[in-house]
Amino acid sequence: MSRDEQLKERWETVVSLLSNKFADGDTLDLDAIIYLIGVQELGKFTQEFKKDEKVNLMHIAICRLLEPYGYYEFDYFDAEGWPHYTVKEELPTLKAGEQSVLMKDAIVNYFLDKEVIK
């Protein structure tokens, strides 16, 4: 199986798993999955978030997801428990499709590392 086929299969597994658990089977999109990862990383599962906090949750997720690729590095937790990251390397300029593939790959690797999927 090619790397692209494997990524597609694993991505579909992640989407199915999360959609069934958090969206009553409605298909979650990439942004919704990034948001869920942000909530997971923050660890405040029952809290309701304001719009700006939701944006911050997505930022946390993106930093965490791209950390293994060398773009970000965890720095510290603030007084409210929010993680902060520093930029280690600027992201390259990517086309929308390339950004999507990078994020899907990072999300699949995140769930592989957490042993949620195989």
Account of the 3D structure:
With 118 residues, this protein is mainly α. Helices cover 57% and strands 9% of the residues. The chain contains four helices and two strands, in the order αααββα. The chain has helices at residues 3-22, 30-42, 51-66, 96-113; strands spanning 72-77, 83-87. The protein has a two-stranded antiparallel ribbon. A hairpin with a 5-residue loop joins strand 1 and strand 2 (83-87).
Low-confidence stretches: none
Class by alpha and beta content: mainly alpha
Name the helicity range: 55-70%
Shape descriptor: globular
Largest sheet: 2 strands, antiparallel
* Beta-strand residue percentage: 5-15%
Radius of gyration: 15 Å
Strand arrangement, major sheet: 1-2
The ordered string of helix (H) and strand (E) elements is HHHEEH
* pLDDT averaged over residues: 94
Number of strands: 2
Terminal CA distance reads 15 Å
Number of distinct helices: 4
Describe the structure using short key phrases.
118 residues, mainly alpha, two-stranded antiparallel ribbon, 4 helices, 9% strand, globular
